[in-house]
Design goal:
Distance between the termini: 33 Å
Number of helices: 8
EC number: 6.3.4.20
Number of strands: 5
Structural class: alpha/beta
Oligomer: single chain
Family: Belongs to the QueC family.
Catalytic activity: 7-carboxy-7-carbaguanine + NH4(+) + 2 ATP = 7-cyano-7-carbaguanine + 2 AMP + 2 diphosphate + 2 H(+)
Order of helices and strands: EHEHEHHEHEHHH
Function: Catalyzes the ATP-dependent conversion of 7-carboxy-7-deazaguanine (CDG) to 7-cyano-7-deazaguanine (preQ(0)).
Organism: Vreelandella venusta
Strand content: 5-15%
Shape: globular
Helix content: 25-40%
Length: 236
């Protein structure tokens, strides 16, 4: 989903919110494939799976694209009521569902990150901000729903004198759809990190791991990442 480039904005340049995960990795490469001048932007907000940032740095270095990691850990006390930001809260396991994974919601995360990405876009004259909200997130994460994305797109058009377009190409797509698109582009998903835990190997039990494994199973390909545990019901 996106609107036409705003008047006066550089339609050939975009800021990609790049976490280091599967979705943003695919969005990043889509933007590159479009021939855009891509500026990758990552955030350290005190997430327990900060390993994703190391992956993001390595990928951007390999691709030779500008990459900025913004340290916003100062706001950690504002968003620490989540299993993703508070190690004292047990990480839930199982498939995505509101009743068992609600503790992984980080308060207002995407509004915060999008606001900063829009600021960077205005600062460098980019006409667009890309991010990887997708259909599989709608059940659990309010700031990945179409209503939020449409509203933020409107805000991005009026918050500054230089309007910015918000682009969420997978807003109506599943994780399996995103993976299918990436595989068609020849992407290697070994260069991504999905697990909500930041250990040496992906846990294979958290909702994020299970959704990833299910996406690979739906595409009849093997996940190149190693796991501590791979639930049989996910890969059968």
């Amino acid at each position: 989903m996106s609107l036409p480039p705003a008047s006066g904005a550089d339609a050939s340049s975009t800021v990609v919110i790049y976490s280091g995960g599967m979705d943003s990795y695919t969005v990043l490469h889509r933007a590159i494939k479009e021939g855009l001048d891509v500026h990758a932007l990552s955030f350290d907000y005190g997430q327990r799976h900060s390993k994703e940032l190391d992956i993001a740095k390595a990928v951007c270095k390999q691709l030779n694209i500008p990459h900025q990691v913004v340290d916003i850990r100062a706001i950690h006390g504002l968003i620490d009521n989540s299993a993703l930001t508070n190690p004292d809260i047990s990480m839930p396991e199982g498939d995505y569902a509101a009743d068992n994974l609600s503790t992984t919601v980080v308060p207002n995360r995407n509004m915060i990150l999008l606001s900063l990405a829009i600021a960077k876009a205005v600062n460098i004259g980019a006409g667009r901000v890309d991010y990887g909200a997708h259909g599989g997130d709608h059940i659990l994460y309010p700031d990945c729903r179409p209503e939020f994305v449409h509203a933020m797109n409107q805000v991005a058009g009026i918050a500054n004198f230089e309007p910015v377009t918000l682009h969420a190409p997978y807003l109506a797509s599943s994780k399996a759809d995103i993976l299918r698109d990436g595989l068609a582009m020849g992407l290697n998903y070994r260069d991504t990190w999905t697990c909500y835990e930041g250990r040496a190997l992906a846990c294979g039990k958290c909702g994020s791991c299970r959704e990833r494994l299910a996406a690979f199973a739906a595409n009849n390909v093997s996940d190149p990442l190693a796991y501590e545990s791979t639930p049989a019901q996910v890969i059968d």
